[in-house]
Design a protein that fits this description.
It is a single chain. The chain is built from seven helices and seven strands, in the order αββαβαβαβαβαβα. By secondary structure, the chain is α/β, with parallel strands linked by helices. It has a single domain, classed as 3-Layer(aba) Sandwich (Glycerol-3-phosphate (1)-acyltransferase), CATH 3.40.1130. It has a seven-stranded mixed β-sheet with strand order 1-7-6-2-5-3-4, with helices on both faces. The longest helix is centred in the C-terminal third of the chain and has 24 residues. It is globular and about 50 Å long.
Length: 207
């Protein structure tokens, strides 16, 4: 109940305050499991996601947020779970595997942290590739534009900036043989997925 009430409120904010434009919603499958892969612009990317997704979504949030009791309760109620940043958090990975095996929807931002500007080069994390390979579920690229201006780093209040979201077509990652040294292949698949998202982001910023 808390999830759907929160999602409804966020959709209202996205629609009325940020005049959200969503493209490609029909590309979301009717049901999970699938992984939505998104670029990370701002702490309010969740508002853009709420305006775009009709499914109940699970996503990771940095573990420090879960140290605040009331916030921790709400984060868990809306489908978030903690991850230790800049580490191989096996507990969070196993939790994500379990979510997908239950046929649910998981969203991941493999940049790991917010980009300061669109030209900043980020090391793309490969966790979503490993998950998709393990569970054999589709990946859906999602580009979010405008949230970095709606709530820039250090800002305390939302600004009425237009938010745009583009959802790409789902695809299956090419299966990777377990016999190979897979690290470079995982990275290549992660980088290629993010290139799709960055290309969609460039399109959004022209519209």
């Amino acid at each position: 109940m808390i999830y759907w009430i929160s999602a409804f409120i966020l959709k209202i904010i996205a629609k009325l305050y940020h005049r959200a434009e969503i493209y490609g919603k029909e590309n979301f499958p009717e049901k999970g499991p699938f992984i939505g892969v998104v670029n990370h612009n701002s702490n309010i990317d969740i508002i853009a996601m709420a305006g775009a997704v009709r499914h109940k979504v699970h996503t990771m949030a940095k573990d420090s947020l879960f140290r605040v009791p009331v916030l921790k309760w709400w984060l868990r109620a809306v489908g978030m779970f903690p991850v230790i940043r800049n580490s191989s958090d096996q507990k969070a990975f196993n939790y994500a595997v379990n979510i997908l095996k239950q046929g649910k929807v998981l969203f991941i931002a493999p940049e790991g942290t917010r980009r300061k500007n669109k030209d900043q080069q980020m090391r793309i994390r490969t966790g979503f590739v490993r998950l998709a390979q393990m569970v054999s579920c589709p990946v859906i690229p999602v580009a979010i534009s405008g949230t970095n201006k709606a709530l820039p780093p250090g800002a305390l209040f939302l600004r009425p900036v237009k938010i745009k979201v583009k959802i790409g077509k789902p695809f299956q990652l090419e299966k990777i043989s377990k016999e190979k040294n897979n690290k470079e292949i995982y990275q290549l698949q992660a980088d290629n997925t993010m290139k799709i998202i960055y290309d969609m982001l460039a399109e959004l910023e022209k519209w």
